[in-house]
């Protein structure tokens, strides 16, 4: 199977690529290689004959068309996106460009390519659009997001992803492009760029720096180990029904403060005791911060037989251990790309 993976040098994308290459798919990665991309995340497969990298911007329609003509893929897994909520608050334009305009370019290029395929390959072709649970907005203290939950995005990031979801659905309904959509909860695991909560807290804790917690730390997220997510995406690509959505969640709800404290305890255990909980510092909350996300993955579990293999405790222990054992991956990022500074402060608009 020849699979075109956009954003394959990112956190989730690289986990997908490592899985697919290990399962003998022929994988072509299309990635612009922005700040959050890291080719070191693909080093385990970089020398494999069934892996190829194309450095390209998905917004460049002509270039994307050329990739389709060269690769002749059987499927597309579209993961390329600007993904950090905080950065979307202070720089929304790039999120609209990549997540909306880029998705439009991918859908149109795929449609042109798919339309010309012979009947058997046309029937088998799939376009998996990978999205987020943040498109659904904020839950109250009870209930879960399902595939029929109304969209109610709160941030520029989630609004841009909601727009891309709507485009993908429309291209399936209007043009018949065989699109399937997935919406996942918060991912964590190895190779995670250190601007996100768990890697940021791990590295700050190791270095004895303050551990920033937004508001009072009561915001709840449902955590999904990234390798479980990659396996779910491969399954959805193979067996998901065209025109359907599948929510992917780990059934691991935790408050942000609980997550931070557990990271502190694991770093104390694995790197030497230092009572790192004392480093917690409550900071001004993120603007428009959704209070709770929680995924109902019953459809994915019952229809396709997927189950998360890691619970939060086992996955977090693996994650902390990985960062302790792989400073060569994250130290260059901390020194030259992102050092842990506060992001997501709304820019002041001058009159």
CATH class: Alpha Beta
Outline type? globular
Q: Per CATH, what is the topology?
A: Rossmann fold
Number of E-type strands: 12
Q: Helical percent range?
A: 40-55%
| Helical/strand content category | alpha/beta
Strand order of the largest sheet: 3-2-1-4-5-6-10
Regions with little confidence, pLDDT below 50 for 5+ residues: none
Mean pLDDT: 96
Taking all Cα atoms into account, the compactness measure Rg is 20 Å
Explain this structure:
The structure is a single chain. The protein has 351 residues and is α/β, with parallel strands linked by helices. The chain has a single domain, classed as Rossmann fold. 43% of the residues lie in helices and 16% in strands. Strands 3-2-1-4-5-6-10 form a 7-stranded parallel β-sheet, with helices on both faces. A 3-stranded mixed β-sheet has the order 7-9-11. Helix 1 packs across helix 8.
In short:
The chain has 351 residues and is α/β, with parallel strands linked by helices. Helices cover 43% and strands 16% of the residues.
How are the SSEs placed, and which strands pair?
Blueprint: E1 2-6, H1 11-22, E2 26-31, E3 51-55, H2 61-71, E4 75-78, H3 85-90, H4 92-115, H5 119-124, E5 126-132, H6 156-175, E6 179-184, E7 186-188, H7 197-207, E8 211-214, E9 220-225, H8 226-239, E10 245-248, E11 253-255, H9 256-271, E12 280-283, H10 298-304, H11 312-325, H12 327-336
Parallel strand pairs: 1-2, 1-4, 2-3, 4-5, 5-6, 6-10, 7-9, 8-12
Antiparallel strand pairs: 9-11
């Amino acid at each position: 199977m020849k699979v075109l993976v956009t954003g394959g040098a990112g956190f989730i994308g690289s986990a997908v690529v490592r899985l697919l290459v290990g399962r003998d798919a022929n994988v072509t990665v299309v990635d612009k290689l922005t700040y959050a991309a890291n080719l070191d995340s693909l080093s385990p497969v970089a020398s494999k004959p069934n892996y190829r990298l194309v450095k390209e911007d998905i917004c460049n329609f002509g270039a994307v068309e050329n990739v389709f003509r060269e690769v002749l893929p059987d499927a597309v897994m579209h993961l390329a996106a600007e993904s950090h909520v905080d950065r979307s608050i202070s720089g929304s334009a790039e999120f609209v460009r990549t997540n909306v305009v880029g998705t439009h370019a991918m859908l149109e290029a795929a449609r042109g390519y798919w339309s010309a395929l012979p009947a058997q390959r046309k029937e088998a072709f799939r376009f998996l659009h990978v999205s987020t649970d943040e498109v659904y907005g904020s839950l109250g203290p009870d209930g879960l997001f399902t595939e029929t939950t109304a969209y109610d995005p709160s941030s520029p990031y989630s609004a841009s992803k909601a727009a891309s979801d709507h485009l993908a659905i429309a291209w399936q309904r209007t043009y018949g492009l065989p699109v399937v959509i997935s919406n996942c909860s918060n991912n964590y695991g190895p190779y995670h760029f250190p601007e996100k909560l768990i890697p940021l807290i791990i590295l700050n804790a190791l270095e004895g720096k303050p551990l920033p917690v937004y508001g009072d730390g009561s915001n709840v997220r449902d955590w999904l180990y990234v390798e479980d997510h990659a396996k779910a995406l491969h399954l959805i690509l193979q067996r998901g029904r065209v025109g359907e959505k599948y929510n992917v969640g780990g059934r691991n709800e935790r408050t942000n403060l609980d997550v931070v404290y557990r990271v502190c305890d694991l770093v104390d255990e694995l790197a030497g005791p230092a009572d790192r909980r004392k480093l917690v510092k409550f900071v001004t909350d993120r603007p428009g911060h959704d209070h709770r996300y929680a995924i109902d993955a019953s459809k994915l579990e019952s229809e396709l037989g997927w189950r998360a293999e890691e619970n939060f405790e086992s996955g977090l222990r693996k994650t902390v251990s990985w960062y302790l054992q792989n400073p060569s991956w994250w130290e260059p990022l901390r020194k030259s790309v992102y050092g842990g500074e506060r992001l997501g402060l709304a820019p002041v608009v001058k009159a």
